[in-house]
Design brief:
Blueprint: E1 2-5, E2 26-28, E3 35-40, E4 44-49, E5 52-57, E6 63-66, E7 77-83, E8 88-93, E9 98-102, E10 105-109, H1 111-114, E11 123-129, E12 132-137, E13 141-145, E14 150-155, E15 166-171, E16 175-180, E17 183-188, E18 201-202, E19 212-218, E20 221-226, E21 234-239, E22 242-246, E23 255-259, E24 263-268, E25 271-275, E26 281-285, E27 287-288, E28 296-297, E29 300-305, E30 311-315, E31 319-324, E32 327-330, E33 343-347, E34 350-354, E35 370-375, E36 378-383, E37 396-402, E38 405-415, E39 417-422, E40 425-430, E41 447-454, E42 460-465, E43 471-475, E44 478-482, E45 496-498, E46 504-510, E47 513-519, E48 524-528, E49 531-535, E50 540-544, E51 548-553, E52 559-563, E53 566-570, E54 593-594, E55 602-603, E56 610-615, E57 621-625, E58 630-633, E59 640-644, E60 656-662, E61 667-672, E62 675-680, E63 694-696, E64 708-711, E65 718-723, E66 728-733, E67 738-741, E68 754-761, E69 768-775
Antiparallel strand pairs: 1-10, 2-62, 3-4, 4-5, 5-6, 7-8, 8-9, 9-10, 11-12, 12-13, 13-14, 15-16, 16-17, 17-18, 19-20, 20-21, 21-22, 23-24, 24-25, 25-26, 27-28, 29-30, 30-31, 31-32, 33-34, 34-35, 35-36, 37-38, 38-39, 38-41, 39-40, 41-42, 42-43, 43-44, 45-46, 46-47, 47-48, 49-50, 51-52, 52-53, ...
Amino acid sequence: MKLKLLSFVFIILGVTSFAQIPVGEWTNYQSYRSASRLVDTGDLIYCAGNGGLFTYNKTDNSVQKLSSINGLSDVGVEALAYGAENDVVLVAYENSNIDLIYGKDIYNLSDIKRKQIMGNKAINKVMFDGAMAYLSCGFGIVVINTEKKEIKDTWYIAEGGAHLTVYDMASDGTYLYAATAEGIYRALASEPNLQDYSNWQRFSNLHPNGRFTQIENLNGKIIVCYSPASGNDELYILDNGNWTRAFTEISKVYDMTVAFNDRIIISNNGDVYIFAENGTIIEKIYMYVFADSQSQGIDPRCTLLNSDGTYWIADNLYGLVRKKGEVSEQVSPGGPVDNSIFSLSISEGNLWVASGGRDAAWGNLWNQARFQKYSAGTWSVFDYSKYSIMSGFHDIVCIVADPNDPEHVFAGCWGAGVLEFQGDELIEHHSYHNSTLQSVIPNANFVAIGGMAFDKEGTLWVNNGGVSKVLSSYKNGEWKSYSLPDIANGPNFGNIVITDDGDKWIALSNRNKDIYVVKGENEARQWQRNIAYFSNGSEEIYLPMHDVYSIALDRESAVWVGSAAGVAVYDEPSRIWNSTEQDPLARYARQPGLELGDGIYHPLLASETVTAIAVDGGNRKWCGTKANGVFLISEDGEKELEHFTVDNSPLLSNEITSIVINDQRGEVFFGTSEGLISYMGVATEPEKAFTDVYVFPNPVRETYDGPIVVTGLMEDTDVKITDISGNLVFHGTSFGGQISWDGKNRNGNRCHTGVYLVFLNNKTGEETLVTKVLFIH
């Protein structure tokens, strides 16, 4: 069991995320537009959805995100419940981890997560009875004593003590009831040995082998939901030993709760019903009337009702909705529309998110065509709701902005060609009928775009999978296509990287056909098998590194390639055009080796599938993997500087889909299978002069113990910090345009109150500057 302190820090969670975020801090950018669970603790509404957990304060109307950044132990909330006796919120995750939230304290119970259990161990729902929390699990029932913060019992209630999926529980004070995959069970609540399955009886007079997913107690009457494999859900009431069909208006029950005045609230498919105890419909909610839009249909997953008549609805489409009278209001945190991230790109501080995708066989995922922009703390959405032409399109897989105009943006679809935008206006849809782009299916609109990139001349280059002319270019309204017979009709084209020489490096992700390189405007072309060469002095080693997932260009113009066997580097990429007679190693890459001090060559990330590579302002490489998080590697690839995973950081998932860096701020964005998160790195784009140097925070107060950053520096700036008497307390060299200092002197002690001088010299010594930082203790 682990105790954490829940920290309510808005700046870290993206609420005001364009303020200065300290180096080393994480920012959560998940979507909260789809909600599924609610609990009411009195002052706070806790709401869970596909983006995690947040609270809404009913007193001051503030919204607070909760995540692993400020104390939660996991991602993916599966169940949520509130115990009034100990004022505790129980959060159960998809992987069966559990957090108990007591105000600002969080206790983690990972017993179920860690326990080796054959089959399903999901936590479906939680019922509180006093201090006891009853967990309906995929194998049976687990009882947690929330006062002692420990698991009290585990009950296997099926015949012979076999595993049985329990979906929900209820109590009428005399009996405990369990809704299971094989009927309704009950046992005396006073029975001291409920671990013995023989003390549980199954009702034989109501679908004894049927699947029951919901159960509630209403004044001693037990209401259950029978969910057959096909057809509508059916609701029944147990009263004086007899089961009676009830609430026949209901077709699909997502949640069922009992509210004040003996009302039963059912979140149904497309509406919310509020029934009286006798089955009379008191109210039906089937639309929202938002202040800034027309009436909208609803998709409720859970509904609560306060005594003042306020409804709180967790909606699959609109997040948390507060409804009172005729007026509805969305009160979820701001953020992206969804957590689907196939690729990221960034231009002039604008972050672009492509929400489409391809499967392992390069087929469509059929995600609705959508991409999003994050700029100056605000999210903008580009989809069918604004552009009707996009309603039939799917899977936007890449976004690229014109380097001469950051508002001029192109979106590549896996099936619908290229969409061209100027600001918020869709100015052209480029497809087989108005460009050189070709359709995979003749005379039909299935134009598969794999990757796009601009060269330094401002020409857009586009790869077009599954057709005869797989490469096209676009500039000043004119399209050109290029015949590459070696790879014609191949479907699996990934991203494009263009070198300073104008060479196009295209990821093929096909064994033995790893990369295709096109020189200039098709003056030369060739397959590039991704094979690394290494010599240890006595033997020469050739390492095939197939299945290319990512390509990046570093600040020294070297090409870095991420593959299923680690990282390969082409330090002089133009050498590939040399003849093998004159340059025998021209076609081979270098696989960097990590220096671990043991004299043994350790190939960089050789056991990892490297799905993403990004280069920061200090020329260091951020490498994302398919299943092992993110690695930060030194400029030369010989040192592992950081390794972030879900176990040692707030990273949302170990599956990384894309990485980009805001070089102006040093913020590193990670696209993951669970959504978007960022880490504030120390390296930024170096400046050409010391014209905008500043130190933050400044002053450094006694309450702050994080890093102090000097930014606005030139490349490889020499930084010396002294006290007012000239005693040196710190000396270092900048990463790109920044340097970070822990605020300690050379003896490891925190600097005392006073003014400290910061002396800056560029690497040639021709540019100098002195600035100051004040410490207050």
